[in-house]
Design a protein that fits this description.
Layout lengths: L22 H4 L16 E3 L9 E3 L6 H23 L5 H18 L8 E4 L2 E4 H23 L6
Antiparallel strand pairs: 1-2, 3-4
Helix pairs in contact: 2-3, 3-4
Length: about 160
């Protein structure tokens, strides 16, 4: 994983209700990552390692790729088991996907490392992924609210 895929620093103690989680699922240092020694203050050398990728993060971070994959599986399960059986109008399953995916991505971006690639508009600071997720959320919501009105019934 390269920089930008992992989360922000996570030195917090794991809450008691998550004590069953393995350490790497709460906080991970990404050993042998591609960042290397380019950012000497962010990484440390792995003792006894030889080769090009002998560094790990000095401060463990949230493993956001793991979290996003799990949320994607949960989203698939919700769409497959419940939503597709309840929806009648064409395209509404996709609209629900847009809503859920927008919320999921917006939430994960709150704990993802962005470096200096953040946008500023007025007093708001956001990432490109958060902007895209809001657009997806908006399109899905508009589709669900007004989609039936936009589709005229066929007459013979």
């Amino acid at each position: 994983s390269g920089v930008g895929d992992w989360g922000i620093s996570n030195t917090a103690a794991r809450p008691g209700w998550l004590s069953w989680l393995p350490d790497w699922a709460w906080s991970y240092s990404y050993p042998h990552n591609v960042l290397g020694d380019q950012a000497a203050t962010q990484v440390k050398f792995i003792n006894g390692c030889t080769g090009n990728y002998c560094y790990e993060l000095a401060v463990p971070v949230y493993p956001t790729p793991l979290y996003e994959a799990l949320m994607g599986l949960i989203l698939f399960f919700i769409l497959w088991k419940w939503i597709r059986h309840k929806v009648q109008a064409p395209g509404n399953v996709f609209a629900w996907y847009l809503v859920f995916a927008g919320v999921e991505r917006f939430r994960i971006e709150n704990i993802r490392e962005h470096g200096s690639s953040l946008y500023r508009f007025g007093g708001l600071v956001f990432s490109q992924a958060q902007l895209i997720s809001l657009v997806l959320l908006g399109i899905g919501t508009i589709w669900l609210l007004f989609g039936k009105r936009l589709t005229a019934p066929k007459t013979d």
